[in-house]
UniProtKB/TrEMBL annotation:
This is Peptidase M1 leukotriene A4 hydrolase/aminopeptidase C-terminal domain-containing protein. One of its GO terms (biological process) is proteolysis. It is found in: Cytoplasm. Residues 465-608 form the Peptidase M1 leukotriene A4 hydrolase/aminopeptidase C-terminal domain. InterPro entries: Aminopeptidase_N-like_N, Aminopeptidase_N-like_N_sf, ARM-type_fold, LTA4H_cat, M1_LTA-4_hydro/amino_C_sf, M1_LTA4H, Peptidase_M1, Peptidase_M1_C.
Amino acid sequence: MAPIDPHSYTDSSNPLTNHISLSLYFNFSSSTINGSSLLTLSSPHTGPLLLDTRSLTITSVLDSKTLIPIPFELSPVIDPIKGQTLTVTLSNQSSVLVSFVTSPCSSALQWLSPPQTFNKSLPFVYTQCQAIHARSIFPCQDTPAARICYSARLNVPRELSAVMAAKHVERRSPVAGEAGVACDEALWCAEGRVVEEFVMEQPIPPYLFAFAVGELGFREVGPRTRIYAENVVSVLDVAAREFAGTEEMIRQGEKLFGAYEWERFDLLVLPPSFPYGGMENPRMTFLTPTVIKGDASGAQVVAHELAHSWTGNLISNKTNEDFWLNEGFTTYAERRIVEVCQGEERAALNIGIGWKGLIEAIEKFKDNLEFTKLKNKQEGVDPDDIYSEVPYEKGFQFLWRIERQIGRPAFDEFLKKYISTFKFQSIDTETFLNFLKASIPGIEKEVDLVLWTEGTGLPSDAYETESIVYTKLVSLAKEFKVGRMPREDEVADWQGQEWELYLENVPRSVEASQVAALDARYRLAESKDYEVKVAFLQLALSSGCRDYYSEVEKTLKEVGRMKYLRPLYTTLVQGVEKEESKILAKRVFAEARECYHPIAQGVVESILSKHI
């Protein structure tokens, strides 16, 4: 017996789950879900079956055919990363029915009270299961190695609607007898309840399980795409304009990577507390509202999540130790889509911003270089604690290096072959490298594959980017140190990405007065583009400029995206002579904490505990 994943109790001697049938009753008054989960295994099993859980109350475990109780034990010891083992003792059985109740502090769920929503009238709940949080919604083998199909019945208040990263079957009244062991029949069939049914017919990793329940509306923006959001006309309309080009991106993705296998590519714009820019849930990508910038540049985040439809969702990393297989490939694929849809210069700027982020990430891990490797060891490590640009940008650089070696036509041919060979599978780095060497004989003599995947830091044959615009922006940023502010004619055509790149390359050692003068001219602290605003606020904090504390506080209280929380909280508390800003960070977090998703709460707590 041995675990197959450092972040899961799933045992190598156990058959893997291949289908789950869920019945979920949503109780907004207690912020809990009463549920049942029918797990079907790939083969009959006799002996202990180990399942992952976190913060779940297990109310029964039954034989799915006879409803006779099956012996089970929930481990008394709670691992701070993996949660608790649910051990079920089977006797030549290939399925098991578990009933459970989630906790109000489920790490995958954020329950929003009506005042936390746009319309202020009805509650909202949504999921974020990556990397290892599906286990806090239902017991499962919570590893990407265990790909599952599923069906789900969501019982919700009639005034709300539900969406899932799955095919919608119907919305209907509850039917007597279908609650089963999920909850009391009287609750399931109560007045004012409806059932939304969904099915996912393609095998996915558990981290891609996703739903949202609230007062939702939508706009049609293409033959395969609807934009969903809270039912607010202004939010829906601006989102529809921002992502109007989605169908063209899908078509370009298909030209590059093969057929789109998921039928729909819908988008859900979530409340500002959503902790990521986007989450590539199949059929329905979840997005932060901060990607809506009014100039269609937010479509680059959509391009990234769309690219996951081939690399990450069709082919997934077997464990988080191979996370680069998801994100490095997807970053490469995103930039190919951006290059076709928005031009080579835009893609080059994207690469330049990524390069800067990679250099900073490697510096961040200078005391733990293991996490600068593409293939790394994560036993005893929370994946949320080591999330960084390394798997994205170093992974991209590795693939770009191979493309430069063999030429784009040959690499495109390889990419399509790779996707068609491994679709609907979860693989590791060794599998990829073996396939690469078999497909491109001699590649290991031309590119040091071991150095790229197992070496620390950045190999010498990594490549920044060549672009006239990129080079000029970086040069202008360096000149700011000696008092050269960009002229208005030089910035006239800049979008958010240009400003972001400029600000990130300005030396951190500039004077506070210089930062204030830059803002006086260009009003960067007031930017509607959070990439620009946060890059500027980070620069202001680094320069010791206290004038922007109120804007930092406001920003930390109005958004929950970790891309912004991490650098702002870190800059507030890291370094010497930071007592005033440390006090500010502690107070703001105490006041804003409940507005953050549980994953973001944990990340900020980790930052503060290291420096305060």
